[in-house]
Specification:
The complex is a heterodimer of chains A (113) and B (111). With 113 residues, chain A is mostly beta strands. Chain A has strands at 4-7, 10-13, 19-25, 31-37, 43-50, 53-57, 64-70, 73-78, 87-94, 103-104, 108-112. The model of chain B has no long low-confidence stretch (mean pLDDT 95). The chains are: A mainly beta (113), B mainly beta (111).
């Protein structure tokens, strides 16, 4: 009964590869997010979608492309992976944009070799 | 420019005593503040929050204090229990804007 789930939990890949991380929420929320936790442990927002519409797009390289096929899913595709992309990526959801509390998935640890 | 700062990377407290975690912010537009708790290999989970119209919010063993003039908030846990050992993130938000997180404080409760 996981509220926000992510797959895979761990991802190890070579530089230059393309990879995807999937996120699903069963809370019926309208808004979903992707966060990156870097080596300094800061959690920084990357993208936010509301009802499948892109709302927040921080200064993230074009190699990162989110895709929301429906309200319950928000996937993250990364092209031409670089060493600096190594991080933990968290998906989150909230009932709507004006709601303050966000519910997080367990995270995906991406290691680029 | 980090708008939310947790200046103590770690804190060690004896079981049964009070744990105080601190957080400072710079953006005066922030009007809502949250604390999240994170165990290893898990995502952050919401703990407690406070609106800028209040200066204190209490939920069981957890109390959050907000000092708007100092742009400072703190989380008090009393009494501290071993299960409280985790990383605690402070976060802030202004209106419908994005949630901005601090870098976390690792709390260790010693038996």
């Amino acid at each position: 009964d996981t509220a926000v789930s992510q797959t895979p939990k761990y991802l190890v890949t070579q530089m230059g590869n393309d990879k995807s991380i999937k996120c699903e929420q069963n809370l019926g929320h309208d808004t979903m997010y992707w966060y990156k936790q870097d080596s300094k442990k800061f959690l920084k927002i990357m993208f936010s979608y509301n009802n499948k519409e892109l709302i927040i797009n921080e200064t993230v390289p074009n190699r990162f492309s989110p895709k929301s096929p429906d309200k319950a899913h928000l996937n993250l595709h990364i092209n031409s992976l670089e060493l600096g992309d190594s991080a933990v990526y968290f998906c989150a959801s909230s009932p709507g944009l004006v709601y303050n509390e966000q519910f997080f998935g367990p995270g995906t640890r991406l290691t680029v070799l | 420019d980090q708008q939310v700062k947790q200046n103590s990377p770690s804190l060690s407290v004896q079981e049964g005593r009070i744990s105080i975690l601190n957080c400072d912010y710079t953006n005066s537009m922030f009007d809502y503040f949250l604390w999240y708790k994170k165990y290893p290999a898990e995502g952050p989970t919401f703990l407690i929050s406070i609106s800028s119209i209040k200066d204190k919010n209490e939920d069981g063993r957890f109390t959050v204090f907000l000092n708007k003039s100092a742009k400072h908030l703190s989380l008090h846990i009393v009494p501290s229990q071993p299960g409280d050992s985790a990383v605690y993130f402070c976060a802030a938000k202004g209106g419908a804007q994005k949630l901005v997180f601090g870098q976390g404080t690792r709390l260790t409760i010693n038996p």
